């Protein structure tokens, strides 16, 4: 189509494989060069090490870690184009060790016959099992292939340590709104007969949440719905904001950490924001409540003892009620805990006591504290001189702690 010739076209590596006129808009918009690439200035800006590595052609294997739609696949294809390398896209879901051996053999042949390097791009590399990852190791190590792995998960936990040690890890960030806006406006060249209201484009940009693929898919759907794309059409196309939140991944722990720290910082508004993020993403409400029970004891403790009661009741209520109403109960508890006075005296005291157990000699229980249930035990002094009393003078004569720790203070309440 003539209009496609005036816009950013898809990678030549892929136009050989299928007619790009039938490709999704997000595929058509993939950049061919570093100049066309949008975003990730912290690693691809002029003078940055990653950019210099690409420009000089001194390639090494890399792992790209970032949220969906941040441009991981596009970077891999740009590198292949810029360095004129052979590009192999590898599926971590369907490929096996035999496929890896076949592709790496072809890569070695390509070097020997054509002096051409091979870039193997593995999307969702965290889905590879240990055997699959290990199969790449010798070829990454001797330079037979350049491996580019993409993952939305923390590679420290999901990628084998030997493979990480032989690769450079680059962290990608969700795109800024100005980057999404630029991509959206570039893509309009594919729709010369359409009319787009600025409010509609702004809505698509903002609702994409930094995910370029989400924005371009929404624009494509909006263009298919109507020749005149107004705010209502954009709303229908977007449907729901994309929230990147993997219950088993980093975002799960990052958001709950931000939630706890906001309550600890006595900020009810921030606490509600992070709570809303979790509720909208479908986090288990009982998990949230359970963390608040821990928080009530760890961070509030005796500064407001009823906090633990409220948090425990919240967990029970959430379990009985369920979503969506459970969100109200969680908000009630979160704001209560955020506004409560804070004390870590009990928690810090426990940590200090446990540290002494690890580092100091463990003395036997003082005889006065032992339970003398037989005549022999009583004759040996078990429980001698001990009786319940609230008289402090009497208590001063009792050794409640082993002798080597006498005078040690663990609980330091303000």
TrEMBL record:
Pfam families: AAA (PF00004), AAA_assoc_2 (PF16193), MgsA_C (PF12002)
Gene Ontology molecular function: ATP binding; ATP hydrolysis activity; DNA binding; enzyme activator activity; single-stranded DNA helicase activity
GO biological process, one term: DNA synthesis involved in DNA repair
UniProt KW keywords: ATP-binding, DNA replication, Nucleotide-binding
Location of the AAA+ ATPase domain: 58-175
Family annotation (Gene3D superfamilies): 1.10.8.60, 1.20.272.10, DNA polymerase III clamp loader subunits, C-terminal domain (1.10.3710.10), P-loop containing nucleotide triphosphate hydrolases (3.40.50.300)
Record keyword Isomerase present: no
Domain of life of the source: Bacteria
Transmembrane segments: none
UniProt function note: DNA-dependent ATPase that plays important roles in cellular responses to stalled DNA replication processes.
Family: Belongs to the AAA ATPase family. RarA/MGS1/WRNIP1 subfamily.
Name listed for the protein in its UniProt record: Recombination factor protein RarA, putative ATPase
Organism: Berkelbacteria bacterium GW2011_GWE1_39_12
Gene giving rise to this polypeptide: rarA
């Amino acid at each position: 189509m003539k209009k496609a010739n005036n816009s950013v076209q898809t990678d030549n590596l892929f136009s050989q494989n299928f007619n790009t006129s039938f490709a999704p808009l997000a595929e058509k918009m993939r950049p061919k060069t570093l100049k066309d690439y949008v975003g990730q200035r912290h690693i691809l800006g002029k003078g940055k090490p990653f950019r210099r590595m690409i420009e000089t052609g001194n390639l090494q294997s890399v792992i790209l870690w970032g949220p969906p739609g941040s441009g991981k696949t596009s970077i891999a294809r740009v590198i292949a184009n810029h360095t004129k390398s052979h590009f192999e896209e590898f599926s971590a879901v369907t490929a096996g060790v035999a496929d890896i051996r076949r592709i790496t053999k072809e890569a070695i042949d390509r070097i020997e016959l054509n002096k051409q390097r091979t870039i193997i791009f593995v999307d969702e590399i965290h889905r590879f099992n240990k055997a699959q990852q290990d199969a790449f190791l010798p070829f990454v190590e001797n330079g037979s292939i350049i491996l580019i792995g993409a993952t939305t998960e923390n590679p420290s936990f999901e990628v084998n340590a030997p493979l990480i040690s032989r690769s450079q890890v680059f962290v990608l960030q969700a795109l800024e709104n100005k980057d999404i806006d630029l991509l959206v406006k570039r893509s309009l060249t594919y729709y010369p007969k359409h009319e787009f209201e600025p409010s509609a484009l702004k809505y698509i940009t903002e609702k994409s949440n930094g995910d370029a693929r989400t924005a371009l898919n929404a624009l494509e759907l909006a263009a298919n719905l109507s020749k005149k794309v107004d705010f209502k059409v954009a709303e229908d196309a977007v449907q729901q904001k994309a929230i990147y939140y993997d219950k088993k991944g980093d975002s799960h722990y990052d958001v709950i950490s931000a939630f706890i720290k906001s309550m600890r910082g006595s900020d009810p508004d921030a606490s509600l924001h992070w709570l809303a993020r979790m509720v909208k993403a479908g986090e288990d409400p009982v998990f949230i409540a359970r963390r608040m029970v821990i928080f009530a004891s760890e961070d509030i403790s005796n500064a407001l003892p009823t906090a633990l009661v409220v948090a425990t009741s919240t967990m029970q209520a959430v379990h009985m009620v369920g979503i969506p109403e459970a969100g109200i109960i969680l908000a009630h508890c979160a704001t209560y805990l955020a506004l409560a006075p804070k004390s870590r005296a009990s928690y810090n005291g426990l940590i200090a006591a446990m540290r002494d157990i690890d580092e100091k000699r463990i003395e036997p229980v003082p005889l006065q504290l032992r339970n003398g249930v037989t005549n022999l035990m009583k004759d040996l002094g078990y429980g001698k001189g001990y009786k319940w009393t609230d008289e402090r003078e009497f208590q001063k004569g009792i050794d409640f702690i082993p002798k080597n720790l006498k005078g040690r203070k663990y609980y330091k309440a303000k």
